[in-house]
Structures are given as C-alpha cells and as structure tokens.
Amino acid sequence: MQEKKAFRVPESTVLLFAILIIAALLTFIIPANKYDLQVKEDGTVSKLIDPDSYHPIDPAPQDPWKMMKAIPKGFNNASGIIFFTMFIVGSFSIITATGTIESILRKILVALRGKEIIMISVSVLVFGLIGAGFGIMEVGLVFIPILITMSLALGYDSMVGISLALVSACAGAAAGFVQSLLAIAQDIVGLPAFSGMSFRVVEWIVLMLTIIIYIYFYGKKLKANPELSPSYHEDKQIERLNLDDTDVSMTGRQKIIGVVVLLGFALLIFGVVTYKWSLTELVALFLSMGIISGIIGGMKGEDIVNVFLEGIKPVMIGILAIGLGRAVLEVLEAGGILHTIVHSMASVVAGLPGALQVVGMYIVQLIISIVIPSGSGMAVVTMPIMGPLASILGITQQTAVIIFQMADCFTNIIVPTSGMLMAALAISKVSFTKWFKWYMPLFLILVLEGAIFSIIAYAIKLGPF
Q: Is residue 139 scored above 70 in pLDDT?
C-alpha cells in the first residue's frame, strides 16, 4: 500500500503567488468601493480617507495579465526594503570576511558564558526600546547576523537570534509610547500626541518580560535537546565560534575596523533620531561601512566585489517574497476591493454586543494588517473608520489607538506579505514555514496579552477621550 505523503505548507514564494491569484479572483467577486481622501483647508488632498465618503466605483477586475503586471509594480514599490536587504547582507559579508566580527563576538561571548539570561535580557530590552521609542523595527534587520552568531555560540539557534531583534522590536512598537506611528494614529482621531504614555509603559514592561521568559525557557529546552530546533539542520551548516579558544586578541586592522563599525552604528542612531533617515540613507551608510572595512582589512577591489556578491546570493529567494507580498496589495488596490474589505469588517464589529465590540475591533485590525502590513498605510486607511466607529460604540479613541498598535505590530512578523519579515528570513536563511511554526505559540501569547490590554483600556475608559 502506497504511503500517503504528509501535507507540507508551501514555501513563501509559492504561497505568496497562490495568495496573489486568490486576490485577483476576488476582484471578480467582491464589489468595488472606495473612500475618498480628505481635502485640507488649503485645498490640498491628504492621505487620510473621509469615513463618510464610502461609495461604489466602476469594477476593475484584475485579469491574469493585470495580475502579472502587478508583480513588477510590487517589486518597484518595495524597492526600498529590497535594496536595504541586499546591501545590508552584502556589506556585512565584507565586514565578516575581515574576521573583525568574529573577534569582537568572541570577546563578548567568553565574558557571557554561563550568563545567557543577561544576553537575552539586554538584547530584548534594547530592541524593545528601539521599537517603543522610534518605531523603526527594520533597524533590527541589521543586527540579525550578529545575534544569530551569538545565539549559536551560546548553544541556541537561529530562531533565538531572529527573535531577539525582530520580536523584541515589534513588541516594543506595539506598546510604543513616543514613536511616529503612534503620533500619526493619535492625530487622525484628534488625541494629543503621545497621550496615554503611562498605560503603554506598563504594556511594554509586560511584553518584554513575556519575550525574555519565553526565549529563556525555550533556550533551556534547546540545550537539553538541540534537535528540537526547527532550524537544527540549517544551523549545523553555519560555522560556529569556538569559545574554548581563549585567544580573544585582535589585529591592528581589526581594531580599526571595529572602531569604524561602532562609529557606523552610532551614526545610524544619530541619523535616524535627528534627521529621520530613511532606508536610502541606511543603505548608503552600510555600503560605506562595508567598503571602508574591506579596504582597511587589506582586501583588493575585486575581492570586495566578489565577497559582496557571494553574500547576497542566499537572500534572493527572500527578495522574491518581498516583491510578491507587495504585489498582493497592488492587486487589491487596483481592483478597488481593499476599502470594501475594510468597510465590511467594520460593519461586522458594529453589530457585536457590548465588550465583544472591543475584541471584534481587535480581530478586524489583525486581519486587515495581513493585507496592509505597512503600519502607516494601515493607520491612514483604518483609523478614520475605526475612530468614528469607536465613538458610536462608546469606546474611547485612546482604546481604538491601543487596538490599532497591538494588531499592526504583532502580525508584522508572521505574515508572508510583510517585507520586513521576508527580509529577516532572507538574511537569516530560515524558511517562512519553519519561522511560522516556531513563532506561532509566542504570537498567540502576545496577541492574547494585546486583547487583554485592549479590554482593560475599554474598561477604565482610557483617555483623555
């Protein structure tokens, strides 16, 4: 008797192409509607939708040809995160080839041996603060190669390395108290900027403790049985630092490169905080760091180019996923059904009884964030609808913003439509399927905590209004 094959979840590119086809088919089924954009007092059109302007538009079904054209459009509109991924990986490959990163990590890891909880706690808190204070979750991508190397050397796996940067930053942003996305959402519903800070600080503390405890106990299980790791076979292929080698000395060239790298990260923080640097500036910075480090390390021009190209080869599958994820959004927008989906979900929430409306709003925002993984994009599309809806239902505007923040950030690192997640997986060479299985339990815990905080905010009528 022939043995049945076990069902396997398709890899990210296949999965995303299937989602793209489904999105195109839906444009033939779901009626096309839209909200008009608000007009400012000076006559210019804003990015915010007018919640009272919902109306039908001419159908625009996306046939196979239009669907295929959405793919290059998606790559074009996702070019920032695509180039960011390529140049970050390539530049780090150059720096790594000089041996500097290995030497620095060896010093740190020898000092931390037996004190893994310190490494976990410090990493989670640092990236959690970056997410809460700046909302720039993509910064965590830069540190993933280093954190994976540290995690493997301490007996953990790639999943720990990814989560220390990405999960911490996203959870920090979910409770963000002084970040730009919070200001955007609060401005849309008329709240004072950064109001409700004390409540969000409590959220942040709880979320950070949750992540630290989860990773710590996962790490203990992993040390007892390394084969429990979803990335066990992939991690075996990665060269690990030998912590039994007590020689932690650095050459003169490596010390200079180390200074260049530290100055580069300092400049990154300064540029992001002071000048609101975008991905373009970050790409330029890391490319400069890579080239300068290669020259100081004694590498020839041809060697620098070859190391860079070899470094970016493994991330090409992830880059395909980033472009396809954006193409899904292109199809929904071009087909005129994105606003229809949002409006329909909001209508369902309005029909729920009592406190279930808060949970309903939370679930709706979670679902919408799968379709619109961009936080700012989700804010300008959903908050002009959810704000008035909250008022009608007797839910404070601050609670509506809490719901938006939680829903947006937690899903950013579990859906294949998220360019940031696909970039992280490309950098770490971990498949989407394995990450999904690993992160799902922690995701459910964080989502549950988000629901609890949303209900608490509703119960205490978190304000000022």
A: no
3-state secondary structure the chain: CCCCCCCCCCCHHHHHHHHHHHHHHHHHHCCCEECCEEECCCCCEEEEECCCCCEECCCCCCCHHHHHHHHHHHHHHCHHHHHHHHHHHHHHHHHHHCCHHHHHHHHHHHHHCCCHHHHHHHHHHHHHHHHHHHCCCCHHHHHHHHHHHHHHHCCCCHHHHHHHHHHHHHHHHHCCCCCHHHHHHHHHCCCCCCCCHHHHHHHHHHHHHHHHHHHHHHHHHHHHCHHHCCCHHHHHCCCCCCCCCCCCCCCHHHHHHHHHHHHHHHHHHHHHHHHCCCHHHHHHHHHHHHHHHHHHCCCCHHHHHHHHHHHHHHHHHHHHHHHHHHHHHHHHHHCCCHHHHHHHHHHHHHCCCCCHHHHHHHHHHHHHHHHCCCHHHHHHHHHHHHHHHHHHHCCCHHHHHHHHHHHHHHHCCCCCCCHHHHHHHHHHCCCHHHHHHHHHHHHHHHHHHHHHHHHHHHHCCCCCC
Integer Cα distance of 96 and 187 in angstroms: 44
Q: Give residue 9's pLDDT.
A: 46
| Cβ contacts of 5 within 8 Å, gap of 6 or more | none
Res. 239 pLDDT band, cuts 50 70 90: low
User: How many Cβ atoms from other residues are within 10 Å of residue 352's Cβ?
Assistant: 15
pLDDT in the model for residue 243 = 55
Alpha-carbon distances of 324 from 72, 78, 315, 385, rounded to whole Å: 9, 9, 15, 28
Contact yes or no for 203/453 (Cβ under 8 A): yes
Describe the crossing of helices 316-334 and 12-29 by its angle, rounded to 10 degrees.
10
Strands 33-34 and 55-56: antiparallel
Q: What residues pair up with 39 in beta bridges, in sequence order?
A: 45
Question: Against a cut of 0.90, is the pTM above it?
Answer: no
pLDDT, tens digit, 9 for 90 and up, residues 287-297: 999 999 999 99
Phi, psi torsion values for 394, nearest 5 degrees: 80, 25
Answer for the pair 159, 430: CB distance below 8 angstroms, yes or no: yes
What local confidence, expressed as pLDDT, does residue 1 receive? 45
Output 5 or 453, whichever has higher pLDDT: 453
Name beta bridge partners: 37: 49
Dihedral sign for Cα 161, 165, 166, 167, please: positive
Q: Is the pLDDT of residue 99 over 90?
A: no
pLDDT at residue number 217: 95
